[in-house]
Design goal:
Elements (H helix, E strand, L loop, with lengths): L7 H21 L16 E7 L6 H10 L4 E8 L4 H14 L7 E3 L12 H5 L7 E2 H11 L4 E6 L3 H9 L1 H4 L4 E5 L21 H4 L2 H8 L5 E4 L1 H4 L5 H8 L4 H15 L11 H10 L7 E3 L1 E3 L5 E3 L6 E3 L5 H13 L17
Helix pairs in contact: 2-13, 5-6, 6-9
């Protein structure tokens, strides 16, 4: 199998970034109720992933990075937006192929949409089954691990809003929410890379009402908006991943080509919005947070407002550090890691 190693300078800089990020993380907790428990490769951080995998390709790369990170222990996955059963079926196939089929996969709130699910064929080639209710499954895990779970939200926030509605007291027992979403100063880049003003970002725009609920929920939020997540995976990097000869790389290759085949009029270069948010979860130095008060309006814009900060917001990420982490994680052979250790009370 193809392997890659961090250069010694990168190891030093990554370590310094982690230490610096830990200080920034502690400082950013000025806006939060309580800090998360420290996590390491020996005591992995407990996470739940809420994803709209199946449309854009970045969710699959984010899941790959999460499962290759020994600092994280995935308690479960819920699918969001549109046909959540089909998205869960896609996730079933993906996890089975990379040897993670023991992770509970659940279906979140079904919504009506005409958005193209580009990787639907991948999902339909795997046996169908009825999935558990993602909202109730997340609440059950929070009750088992109060104050310890990071919710990684990388899709529209229908499930998050439903969780708040169903049991707001339990939702507040999350350690924090790490989300990809919003736009503060920078919108979607232009076709030639030009920087544009703030936009209604997709995850917020699809469900602004539930985004507003999250920002008012009183739970610590770490937010990676368009300002810091528009990092592109160029052709040389794609080829390095697709030829890495490991099960994860094989699945990313399949999903990437379905995304390209069923997406109209856009570049074949993926933008890695969601993996940046996922990386921040365990490498905070890659995306330093600033405490800001954010409100989501009914048009899907996330705006700075006066008042006590309710979120940490990453306005600029370490692109070089992120790329090095991503390439190392996705091109290395499968490693025995702390994420495979049992967690008391988990469903695995």
């Amino acid at each position: 199998m193809k392997t890659s190693k961090y250069p010694s300078k990168l190891l030093v800089s990554a370590g310094m970034a982690f230490l610096a990020g830990s200080v920034l993380l502690a400082a950013s907790r000025l806006y939060a109720q309580a800090p998360c428990e420290a996590a390491s490769s020996k005591t992995p951080q407990l996470v739940w992933v809420d994803t709209d995998i199946g449309d854009d390709i970045d969710d699959a790369f984010a899941l790959g990075l999460i499962f290759r990170s020994p600092e994280l222990k995935v308690l479960g996955i819920s699918t969001a937006f549109g046909d959540t059963e089909l998205r869960a079926r896609l996730t079933d196939r993906f996890l089975a192929a990379i040897g993670e089929q023991g992770i509970p996969v659940t279906a979140g709130v079904h919504t009506e949409t005409d958005n193209v699910m580009t990787q639907a064929a991948y999902a339909r080639q795997f046996p169908a089954r009825k999935h558990a209710d993602g909202v109730e499954a997340l609440l059950a895990q929070i009750r088992l691990h109060p104050g310890k779970i990071t919710l990684i939200a990388i899709g529209p926030l229908f499930n998050v809003g439903a969780t708040i509605d169903r049991d707001p007291a339990t939702f507040k027992k999350l350690c924090r929410v790490v989300m990809m979403g919003g736009s503060i100063d920078r919108g979607y880049d232009g076709a030639n890379g030009e920087i544009r003003p703030a936009d209604a970002e997709w995850n917020i725009d699809r469900d602004p009402k539930d985004a507003a609920k999250l920002f008012a929920a009183g739970v610590p939020i770490d937010m990676a908006p368009l300002d810091s997540t528009q990092i592109h995976l160029d052709s040389a990097q794609r080829e390095a991943i697709f030829t890495a000869a490991n099960p994860l790389a094989d699945q990313l290759t399949l999903l990437y080509h379905q995304w390209v085949a069923h997406s109209g009029n856009h570049s074949q270069t993926p933008t890695l919005f969601d993996p940046v948010a996922a990386a921040y979860t365990f490498q905070p130095g890659l995306c330093p947070m600033q405490p800001i008060r954010i409100e989501a309006d009914d048009k899907g814009f996330t705006r700075r407002v006066e008042g006590k900060p309710n979120a940490g917001v990453c306005l600029k990420s370490d692109e070089a550090g992120f790329r090095a982490l991503l390439m190392h994680s996705l091109t290395s052979p499968v490693l025995k890691s702390a994420k495979n250790k049992s967690v008391p009370g988990s469903q695995k």
